[in-house]
C-alpha cells in the first residue's frame, strides 16, 4: 500500500479586516482561505451542495470559549459531518492551519484517510471525527478523477490519437452528467 499526501494545499487564515460581530459573516473569507475544502477532511464543498451547506467550526468550542466566538483565528471551514462529530469536544485536535496535516495523516490509493501511528492527536481525530467514513475517500477520488481528466484533455488536444480523444469524450460526458445530476438535486 502506497502512502499519499493527505492534502495538496494547506489552508490559511488571511482575513485582516475589522472584527465582525457575527462569526457567520466570515464564511466567504473562510471558504476562500480553505480553498472551498473542509479543513479537517480536505473534501471540496461542491460535493456537499456548495458553500451554503458547509459550516463554520469553532476550533475551540464557542460554548466553552465564548470570547473566541468571533475570532477569525479560531474558525475552520468545515463539512457538516465533521463539525457535528466534533461538536463541543475539547479533545486533542490539530488546527488545520497551524499544523501540517501531511505529517499527521496520509491517504491510500483509494483516498482513505489514515492517522500516522506516532501522532496521538491524529489517532484521536480519526476516531472522533469519523475520518474513516467512505464518503471522504469517494469525494477525494472524484476530485482526483476530475484533475486527471483536465490533464488528459490538455494532452489529447496536442496529439492526434483519435481513440484517446474518443475515450476522453465518453468519460467526460459520464462524469459531467453525474455532476449535472448532483446539481439538480441540490
TrEMBL record:
Residues 42-87 form the HNH domain. One of its GO terms (molecular function) is zinc ion binding. Transmembrane segments: none annotated. InterPro entries: HNH. This is HNH domain-containing protein.
